[in-house]
Amino acid sequence: MKKIATYILMLGAVAMMGSCNDWLTEDAPGSNKIEDYFVSTATAIEVVNATYAPLAWEYGNSTTYYSEWYFGDIVSDDALKGGQGTTDMGVAYDMENFKTNPDNRLLLGFYNAQWQGIQRCNLAIEQVGKMAVGIDAQFTQELKDRLLAEATFMRAYYYFRLVRVFGGMPLIDYVVDSSNKFNFDRATQLETYEFIIKDLENCVEALPLKSKYAAADMGRATRGTAQAMLLKANLYLAGFQAQQGVDATAAYTQAKHWGEELMGSGEYDLVPTYFDNFTLAGENGKESIFEIQYVEDPRSDYGEGEGFTRGTFTLIMQRPRAGFNDKETGWGFDHPTQNLYDEYEDGDLRRDATIMQQEGDEVDEAAKYLGNYYYNRKYAQTTDGAGGTWYHLTHHSRGPLNYRLIRYSDALLMYAEACCELGDLTPAITALNRVRSRVNMPAFPYTATIQGQSVTFTSSQADLRRAIRHERRVELGMEGHRWFDLCRWGIAKETMDAYIAGEDAEVRAEYGVFQKGKHELMPIPSEERQLANGKLAQNPGY
Is beta strand 446-450 parallel, antiparallel or unpaired with respect to 453-457? Predict the structure, then answer.
């Protein structure tokens, strides 16, 4: 699927529909109905292919970059914004420092991209669902079911991206072709997670196993992808239920169940070498459950709205501005923090696989951001070039490295967490130790130096919970997970306050005050609320 073009005639974005009127009921002479387009297997595949495209978008009509790692990394204690000073991408600076306003263009771009995805999914589900089996020789019931399941999975995934950032969303499971059809009433956060889980449950059995797909189709949603997302969505639901005083046992139980289904499939395993997960050769490998598919595309037309490139900006965004390899420099965003660096235990090879630091002759003041010289190694492609050298990027919009959304180690740790919360400690410990043993770290329970302090994890449930949370941070560091973990655990306020208090004075001076009950979510973009004539409720405190 990495090589498949995703072109299709589309309905307008949801964000553009605020001023539309009902379409004319009489067809103009020579006009075509949308149903007239869906007459072949090729069309059905193309419209489902198109549902994946917005997942890869990172820049467009909002006139700024909006990759999901801006939320997961830099809003958290894992990373500083970076770039050429604090004013470079001020929209990201505001998010990082709890100064975000509803007119933030990064939020608008991210919000619109997910809704574009949802509407593409709804179009595919509606129109492919109407197509008769046997419309041509290739359009079998099995293929129809798979395509509908892919589109249903992608709708759930876009909603998952939205609810983590903005909270409860309007739940739209139909094509919006008129302003009269859009319901701006927001569901609650818990209702949105339940909607996501229902979609995932409806599609999981119709999706093929990863091993059943041809190589050209790698990157499509699989049964394992849906199982992993059912594990994840139930875990998020449970976390927010617990914060709201709702019994979360059923959600944790479902998370555990789907973790067992995933592990029992035999489709996934940890790769022996940790850093292989972040190389071109390691794309869609044994540990990969879901990735955004990118390719270096010579046809990129920079600045022409969403979808103009099939490459990623993450490479150029995160590469050092100077000091490591002056021939392959980047824009210097997403600096790992000293706090993240100090979270790694002595001898943990994942630290240096995740964090590059300038030393000796490499130190360059042009690369410094608020005193920080660290960079994310995982997406810098320092070994993908000829002879294991830095990969040469022909244009900054054309990074070829897939972005890993769900790895098997992530799923193992989520499963361990669900078991731990249910008091089922033995399988939780087994899953945790599988992740640790890959990098030769001592098995739980253990004692280690973390954040400069000796920490002992006993075999109690409380210490196992702490150990799993620590392991998620070091295993998944700089992969866009940390902020969302802090929020679903309900510890964002105390974690960020402690982190900020321990930062250098230069960094502390930039931060606003974290307000619990407000800053766990971003504001709904003001432009979207204007289009909704005020019917789209704003998040508390904005």
Answer: antiparallel
Q: Which two tokens stand for residue 537?
A: 């409720």
Report the domain count for the chain: 1
User: Nearest CA to 345 among 440, 259, 255, 226?
Assistant: 440
CB 188 within 8 A of CB 246: no
Pseudo-torsion of CA 107, 112, 114, 115, nearest 10°? 140
Angle of CA points 277, 278, 279, to nearest 5°: 100
Q: How many residues does the chain have?
A: 542
Structure tokens at 278: 């972040």
Structure tokens at 336: 């790992």
Q: What is the pTM of this model?
A: 0.94
- Whether 325 is covered by a domain: the verdict is yes
How confident is the prediction along the chain (542 residues), in pLDDT tens digits per residue?
654 433 333 333 333 333 344 444 555 565 678 878 899 999 999 999 999 999 999 999 999 999 999 999 999 999 999 999 999 999 999 999 999 999 999 999 999 999 999 999 999 999 999 999 999 999 999 999 999 999 999 999 999 999 999 999 999 999 998 877 877 899 999 999 999 999 999 999 999 999 999 999 999 999 999 999 999 999 999 999 999 999 999 999 999 999 999 999 999 999 999 999 999 999 999 999 999 999 998 888 887 889 999 999 999 999 998 878 778 999 999 999 999 999 999 999 999 999 998 777 777 777 789 999 999 999 999 999 999 999 999 899 999 999 999 999 999 999 999 999 999 999 999 999 999 999 999 999 999 999 999 999 999 999 999 999 999 999 999 999 999 999 999 999 999 999 999 999 999 999 999 999 999 999 999 999 999 988 999 999 99
Helix or strand (DSSP H, E) at 189: helix 189-203
Distance of CA 116 to the CA centre of its chain: 16
Instruction: In whole angstroms, give the CA distance from residue 312 to residue 314.
Output: 5
Q: Is residue 357 part of a domain?
A: yes
Does residue 359 belong to any structural domain of this protein? yes
Contact residues for 245 (Cβ-Cβ < 8 A; gap 6+): none
Residue type, 156: A
Residue type, 514: F
Q: Provide the residue range defining the domain that includes 339.
A: 314-401
SS3 sequence of 137-153: CCCCHHHHHHHHHHHHH
Q: How far is CA 68 from the centre of its chain?
A: 6
In a domain, 149, yes or no: no
> 31 CB contacts (<8 Å, ≥6 apart)?
none
3-class state of residue 400 by DSSP:
coil
Query: Closest by alpha carbon to 124, among 158, 150, 162?
Result: 150
